[in-house]
Amino acid sequence: MTIEEKIENALKPTVESMGFDWWGMEYMPAGRHTLLRIFIEKTDGTVNSDETYAVCKQISAILDVEDVISSEFRLEVSSPGMDRLLFTPEQYKRYEGQEVQVRSGVSVLGRKRFKGPMTKVTESGIELEIDGELFEVPFEFIEKANVVPKF
Question: What is the pTM of this model?
Answer without folding.
Answer: 0.90
